[in-house]
Structure formats: structure tokens, C-alpha cells
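Consider one such protein record:
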Amino acid sequence: MGTSGALRYAPHTVRYEGKVYRPPSEADALIVQATLGCSWNHCTYCDMYREKTFRVRTLDDVLEDLDRAARVDPGVEKLFVADGDALVLPMDHWLPVLDRARELFPRLRRVSCYAMARNVLAKSDDELRTLRARGLSLLYIGPESGDDATLKRIAKGDDSAAHVEAARRAHAAGMALSVIALLGIGMERSREHAEGTARLVTAMDPEFFSALTVTVVPGTPLATLAERGRFTVPSKVDLLRELRTMVDLARPTAAVFRTNHASNYLPLAGRLPQDRERILALLDAAMEGRIALRSERSRGL
């Protein structure tokens, strides 16, 4: 899940098709669609790309959008390559895009994209190293859960072992990872979901770790399950309890931690492991009603 919001460049400068999603931390990035939609697009909770049929945009169109953006602002420092799992792009698309970006934007310091574990695993070690050397430095991967039963039920497409191997290979290539968990998706497996996610975060050892809260979006398979009484979003306290378990048990080496996505009831920020006790204390206070939570009106996707 990502954020749909104001884009840095107007559509007459960089051309966009359909809704465009990006992580909260890419709000100040130039966003260019190299793919449209998601090559998997089966996750039960997600409606981000259901309106689109997946395809790779022509390389000429992508390069032209980079050229257009550079004419407006050659000082771009961050580039987010969209849509849903743009790492799926073949190398003969990725390399010209990365090379043109470096040529056009001398201050460029980060290129990132969404990725599935299978996208990473489909690339050879040499290809991953080449992508990193040419500028792709950060992958956003959303396993959502480390509980394989939950992953199967939500049709994630990759199990926890695949995510661990993908993380190992991305790190070996020199790429940083941002790992995303989804609070509330485990339902009756809430404890297994929270504990399994903590184990997965430990094994993937990302540089960034964030959590979102599940939202039942009309038109998704999850919404159908909810209508049939087979899925219910947990209570706020139960959602916070899941997050507490993840923070308490996850052991990344050094990760920036955030719950700043609009879907969450309690925005938190810090570093793990340094700030673990402070974050746990805030979660305890929230569960006890001593900290106000974000109102439903203030939450979003």
C-alpha cells in the first residue's frame, strides 16, 4: 500500500496515467511511470492498480518524461520509478532510464522503486549489482506479514523465505531496503502475524521499517470477505498490540522506523534498536488511553 497525493510536477510536464502511488518518504521526489499497474495485482487488500492492465511503457516515453522534468527543474535529488513493482522492468529499460537520470540531474542522490520479492529473485546477482552501480539504491518491499498462512490467504504471491532471500541478494548488491508491514491483516492469526512479521523484519534486516493499517477498500476481494462476515478490521487496541509485538521482537541492525502513513491511528518515528523502549512506552500509553489517536476523519490511504 502507498500514498496517493499531490505530485511534484504537473501532468503537462510529466505525463501520468491513472492514479499514481508512492511511499510517504517520496513526497518530494520526481515520480516517473516506467510501468503502468502491477505485474502481480492479486493481493486481496489492494486496489491501487486494479483499474490498470499491467504494461511496460515505451522507453522513449519514459526518457522524454525525464527530459521534460529536467527542463523544469534540473536540481532533482530523488527519483521514484513507478508503478507498482517497477523492478520487474527488463535491464534494457532500466539502464537507459538510470543513465539518463544521472545525466540530467547532477544532484540526484537516490533512485527508488516498489518491488516484490519475486522481482528481486528474477534478477541475477550481476544485474542487481549493475542496477545499484547505475543508481538504483532503495527498494520498497511490502511483505505485509511474516506469517506464511496469512501471506497465502491474502494472495501475496511470495512466502517469508522468498522475502528473506530477496533481502539477502538486494543487500549483497549494495541496495537499501524499506520493509512494510500491514497491521490487522492476520485476523484470528493476529499473534502469529505480529510475531512472524517481527521475525521476518529481523531476517530481512532493512534500513527502513514501516507499518500501515489495513483498510477495507470497496471492490477488493477483502471487501467481499468483509461483506460475507469473513474479515473484520481488529479494534484499535488490537492493532496497537500487533505493532507493539513487532517493535518489541524485531531485531534489525539499524532501521529507521515510521508509522507516518495516513492509515495509521498513531504516528510514530524513531530508530530501532535505539528507540525501542521509548516507542513501546508510547504504544502502552496509547493502548491505555493516555495518548489521543488519529480520528477516523483524519485517516486515509
In short: Residues 130 and 173 are 8 Å apart (CA to CA). The two ends are 8 Å apart (CA to CA). The longest strand covers residues 136-144.
